[in-house]
Specification:
The protein has 352 residues and is α/β, with parallel strands linked by helices. The protein has four domains: 129 residues, NusA, N-terminal domain (N Utilization Substance Protein A, Chain:P, domain 4, 2-Layer Sandwich); 59 residues, OB fold (Dihydrolipoamide Acetyltransferase, E2P), CATH 2.40.50.140; 76 residues, 2-Layer Sandwich (GMP Synthetase, Chain A, domain 3); 65 residues, K homology (KH) domain (GMP Synthetase, Chain A, domain 3), CATH 3.30.300.20. It is 38% helix and 29% strand. It is built from twelve helices and 15 strands. The strands form four sheets. The protein has a five-stranded mixed β-barrel. Strands 1, 2, 3 and 4 form a four-stranded mixed β-sheet that branches. A hairpin with a 6-residue loop joins strand 1 and strand 2.
């Protein structure tokens, strides 16, 4: 060991945040293990490293005894007192010994290996710390490769994984494509951080609106809820804290530019922007757009509602394969039944 290594350790501490003491302790431990392994069965060796000049000293630890039976492990009281008169029976005496001639090479190799290992560990920990706790954050990455349907995305310092279930159905990912994703989960594995990404999660739409609409970013307009069936359709409920700011118009943007940018990012998925209302009946009516709603009857206790629509709007309100009413139910948190106006009139007459 020498000052070059100490200088390297100082730089390591500045750049990577790895404490010099931690590396020196690891080097010392590795050298002890190496010496015991290569130069004898005794386990009573220890190494001290001088932090000022990088020099190391090898010691053999011996127990002070009355009568020596093992020269490698024990030292007589008489001999110990020649070293220091304060030694008593049972004390440990550290006797400096000269390491074998090729131990310097082993020491240098060990130091390099430990330093490289600590650098890798620190970099893994740094990357994990950077992404941990950022679930739902939006990231832009570059598609690298595909393996068994999973897409690997270069995020800069690390590769994220976009699993089959988190992809937008029907979307094609080619190497080199730049895509936006949200962080779904961050795990710390033995090999470093494992970042799971998503393009199908509702939070992707939420983050895209926050990026695209300044009024959402600054809190003037708030997103109340989102329901999404990725690759097909999303409903987003918004409201404004400022009566002078119209929420739907702000989200759509001039000539629809804002919402178009979002739609382009999510593979032309349809987006319905809806006004949230504290009155559940009004909110449910809004959520069923683009269908026109005649009346909504809500049961607050059971959180169920019946929405009445014109006869010619029934299929529109329900949607293809029930998608419109299904998304409206997720958006509002209410169970919604749709009936036509003629059905509602028949029921009313029967009740009379």
């Amino acid at each position: 060991m020498n000052k070059d290594i100490l200088n390297a350790l100082n730089e390591l501490e500045r750049e990577k945040g790895i404490k010099q003491d931690v590396v020196l302790e690891a080097i010392s431990s590795a050298l002890e293990t190496g010496y015991k392994k290569n130069y004898g069965k005794a386990t009573n060796f220890s190494i001290e490293i001088d932090k000022t000049n990088g020099e190391y000293k090898l010691f053999q630890d011996k127990t002070v005894v009355e009568s020596v039976e093992n020269n490698n492990l024990e030292i007589s009281l008489e001999e110990a007192k020649t070293i220091d008169s304060k030694f008593e029976l049972g004390d440990i005496v550290k006797i400096q010994i000269e390491p074998k001639k090729d131990f310097g090479r082993i020491a240098a190799q060990t130091a390099r290996q430990v330093i490289l290992q600590k650098i890798r560990e620190a970099e893994r920990e740094s990357v994990f710390s950077e992404y941990y706790g950022r679930e739902s954050d939006i990231l832009t990455g570059v598609v690298q490769r595909e393996n068994k349907g999973n897409i690997f995305v270069d995020l800069g310092k690390i590769e994220g994984v976009l699993s089959v279930n988190e992809q937008i159905p029907g979307e094609v990912y080619n190497a080199g494509d730049r895509i936006k994703t949200v962080i779904l989960e961050v795990k710390n594995t033995g090999k470093g951080a494992n970042i799971m990404l998503s393009r199908s999660h509702p939070n992707l739409v939420k983050r895209l609106f926050e990026l695209e609409v300044p009024e959402i970013h600054d809190g003037t307009i708030e997103i109340f809820s989102i329901s999404r069936e990725a690759g097909s359709r999303t409903k987003i409920a918004v409201f404004s804290h400022d009566p002078n700011v119209e929420p739907i118009g702000s989200c759509v943007g001039n000539k629809g530019t804002r919402v178009k940018n979002i739609i382009d990012e999510i593979n032309q998925e349809k987006i319905d922007i809806i006004i949230y209302d504290k009155d559940p009946e009004k909110f449910i009516a809004n959520s069923l757009g683009p269908a026109k709603i005649v009346i909504v009857k809500a049961n607050e206790k059971e959180k169920t509602a019946v929405a009445v629509v014109p006869d010619n709007q029934l299929s529109l309100a329900i949607g293809k394969e029930g998608q419109n009413v299904r998304l409206a139910a997720k958006l509002t948190g209410w169970r919604i039944d749709i009936i036509s106006e003629s059905q509602y009139n028949e029921r009313s007459q029967e009740e009379v």
